[in-house]
Amino acid sequence: MNNKHSLPMPLTNFQEVLFTLINNGYCSFFDFSYLQGFRTRVSEIKEKLKIETTMHQRCNKFGNQYRYAIHKLPESEIDNALNLYYESQK
Predict the structure, then answer these.
(1) Contact 38/20 with Cβ under 8 angstroms?
(2) Cα-based distances in Å from 85 to 36, 39, 57, 62, 64
(3) Cα–Cα distances in Å, from 54 out to 24, 27, 46, 58, 79?
(4) What torsion do the CA atoms of 1, 7, 81, 58 make, to the nearest 10 degrees?
(5) Which of 90, 88, 89, 74 is nearest to 22 (CA)?
(6) pLDDT, one tens digit for every residue, the chain (90 residues)
(7) Phi and psi dihedrals of 33, rounded to 5?
């Protein structure tokens, strides 16, 4: 796990998604395919931070296209995200 901000390790799913957003600058379903509540965690983060969402397309092995969201943390929100992360650690 990339930890360029030297954050304490996440203890909850909410913190894990936020940790990834802070350190990578983005996250998607492909980062958390094992996490059943990924979209819920992103929604909770979006209530507190301004997250940009863009839709992308891929093809599966049968040639069928599907869309998925990539959630990006703008540079202007990094300080707010760090504060939210430390607050959720309490």
Answers:
(1) no
(2) 21, 18, 30, 40, 38
(3) 16, 11, 14, 13, 22
(4) 0
(5) 74
(6) 678 788 999 999 999 999 999 999 999 999 998 999 999 999 999 999 999 999 999 999 999 999 999 999 999 999 999 999 999 998
(7) -65, -25
